[in-house]
Amino acid sequence: MSKLKNTKINSSIGGFDSFDDCGIHQINDKQSIIQTLDFFTPIVDNPYLFGQIAATNALSDIYAMGGTPLFALNIAAFPSNKIPLNILSKILQGGIDKCNEANIAILGGHTIKDDIPKYGLAVTALINNNDIIRNNTAKENDDIILTKPIGSGIISTAIKKGLAKEDIKNQAVSVMNTLNNKASKIMLKYNANACTDVTGFGLLGHLNEMCAGSNLSAVINYTNIPLILGTENFAKNKIIPGGTKNNFLFLKDDLHFSDSIQEYEKLILADAQTSGGLIITCSKANTQNMLLELNQKESFESKLIGEFKSKQEYNIYCKR
What we know:
The chain has helices spanning 47-64, 85-101, 152-160, 166-176, 181-189, 202-214, 231-236, 242-251, 263-269, 284-297, and strands at 12-14, 23-26, 31-40, 68-78, 105-113, 118-128, 143-146, 194-197, 216-221, 255-257, 278-282, 303-310, 316-319. With 320 residues, the chain is of the alpha+beta class. The chain folds into 2 domains: 12-131, CATH 3.30.1330.10; 143-319, PurM-like C-terminal domain (Phosphoribosyl-aminoimidazole Synthetase, Chain A, domain 2). Strand 2 and strand 3 form a beta hairpin.
């Protein structure tokens, strides 16, 4: 955990330089404001669910750093000359209801006219300086825990192609629609050393940021990675989004896979996620207790997927 007591008051102490999930601004010797903004185009046909998923995704950055959200502002783009305004109302209601679940209010926002609908939130949160969890503070021999299954990018592509059955759709939406607030509180309780959430860069991309920032290498076991129902079958049949392929190409020089890992499995690990789970690192002494409480209180099974080692030739090693 970062210790920030000696940082100059009223200075910005986090941002682009460390690729943290939120910007951090210290307001006194005890507390900081953390802030994030995230929005995107629809990934499901149901406008209400889209609003909920977009809000969940935006809030996730706050939870990844251990913060408590205070309030949010809407950001939206909508083709009001082409699509009825009641669709926008349903999107906004989804965001409102998800923020109510997170016990915060949406205080306003801004909407512009655009040909492609977009929606998300700017979220402001408060955090104790000694509780800030960064993505670049993992320690050697830390265990790596993942709190939600991956595969939402692949499943979303299958949905667009009309290939996903209702049970697969429902699980993917549930994963994307579940807040990371409980996991955030639990990781603080068990002294997590580092954390980030899994979004557009995929599991490998966000883990790679943690490795680079912490100057460590990660060893993960493919068998332990939780997957959304149907992910492997679609990936085997090359139902893979372009963003996922681009992620893998961007990362490949930092990755080493054992011979048993198939090409489609590599792409699953790089799958571009929406509103995924948290990657949490902690000392081995705390792993089992953290996992036990996560799996008592969370909707999806958290898994121990690997550990951090001293810096090697590659940032990430994947075995089976």
